Amino acid sequence: MKKKGWIILLFAFIGFAFSSDKPAYILYDQNGKVATYKQMIADIQQADIVFFGELHTDPIAHWLQYEITKDLYAVKKQDLIIGSEMFESDNQLIMDEYLAGVYDAKKFEAEAKLWGNYKTDYKPVLDFAKKNGLLYVATNIPRRYASVVHKKGFDGLKELSDEAKALIGPDLERLYDKNVACYAEMLKMKGMGGHVNEKFPMAQAAKDATMAHFILENWSKGKLFFHFDGAYHSDNFEGIVWWINKLKPGLKIKTISTVYQESVEKLDDENLDRANYIIAVPETMTQTRR
To answer: Residue 226: what are its φ and ψ, rounded to 5°?
Structure first.
C-alpha cells in the first residue's frame, strides 16, 4: 500500500477510536462549550470562594474534588481553606482536634457524625488537609436544628440556647426570601408528600445560610475557600451563593456542578448556566454507597 493509503487508514482508525470512546465525564463551561481541566484550575484559583456541587454518591465528583484540592493547594498553599456540607458545625471541635493530631482516625470516626460514604468519598480530602496543615471547616447546621425549622419554622429557633444559636447562621428570619427560585420550587412540591410544607424551604435555607455564615467566618482576603456541597445548594448561583452575596456582596465566586446525562457528548439545554463549570457524567456511572 502506498504511503498516502496508510495515512488515510491511520486517520480513519483514529476517527473510529475517538467516536467509540466512552469518557467517564466531560467538562463544560456554563455556555456549553467543552472546557479543559487546566483552564478550569487557572480560572478558579483566582476566586475567593469556589463551590463544588456534587451528586453525593457519584465517584467522579469525589475523585475530582480530591484532584482539584491538590492542584489548588499547589498554588495557594496555606491560603487554601476547605469546608463542606458533610460535616455539621457542632463537629468543628472534634475535627480540629483530629486535624491537630490529638487522637487517631479511629477515635475521630467513632465520635464524629459521619455520612455512610465518608471513608471512600470524604476522608481522602480531610486527610489531605490533615497532612498539609489546612483548615477544614464543618459548615452545615446540626441536623437536629434543621429539623426544628422544618417542624416549627424560624420561630422554633427562638426556643434554643445561645450556645445552640451559635451553631446556626444568624438573621435567618429577617433575610430569608421565599421567592428565591430554589426555595420557590420547593413550595411547588406541596401536596406531594407530608414532609413538604411552607416550612420545608425554610429548613433548606437554614442549611444554606449556616454554610454561608461559617464560610465567611473563616474566609479572609487573599484566601481561597473550597467548599463541597450537594449541587442543589449552589446550582444556578442560588442557595449558599445567594446567602454569601446577601451577607457579603462583592466576593469573587466560582461554582462547579455535577450532572447526569444519557449522553455526555453535548451539554443538555437544561444544564446550561447551571454553574461556571459543569461536569457531565454518564447516567450509568457506578455509584458509591451512602
So the answer is: -105, 115
- 152: its cell numbers: 416549627
Domain 25-282 has CATH 1.20.120.680: no
What is the residue-level pLDDT of the chain in tens, covering all 290 positions?
A: 444 544 444 444 444 444 458 899 999 999 999 999 999 999 999 999 999 999 999 999 999 999 999 999 999 999 999 999 999 999 999 999 999 999 999 999 999 999 999 999 999 999 999 999 999 999 999 999 999 999 999 999 999 999 999 999 999 999 999 999 999 998 887 655 556 678 999 999 999 999 999 999 999 999 999 999 999 999 999 999 999 999 999 999 999 999 999 999 999 999 999 999 999 999 999 999 87
> Which residue type, as a one-letter code, is found at position 118?
Y
Among the residues of the chain, which ranges form H helices? 3-19, 37-44, 59-76, 92-99, 105-111, 123-132, 143-152, 162-165, 172-175, 181-187, 200-218, 240-247
Angle of the 200-218 helix axis to the 240-247 helix axis, nearest 10: 60
Q: For residues 115 and 86, is the Cβ–Cβ distance under 8 A?
A: yes
How many CA atoms within 13 Å lie on the side-chain side of 133? Answer: 4
Domain residue ranges in the chain:
25-282
Longest CA–CA separation in the chain, Å: 86
Q: Which three cell numbers stand for residue 122?
A: 470524604
Distance CA 211, CA 243 (A): 9
How many angstroms separate the CA atoms of 154 and 143, rounded?
A: 14
Query: How many CB atoms sit inside 10 A of residue 57's CB?
Result: 18
Checking DSSP bridges between strand 136-140 and strand 224-230, what pairing results, if any? Answer: unpaired
What three-state secondary structure class fits 1? coil
How far apart are alpha carbons 66 and 86 in whole angstroms? 15
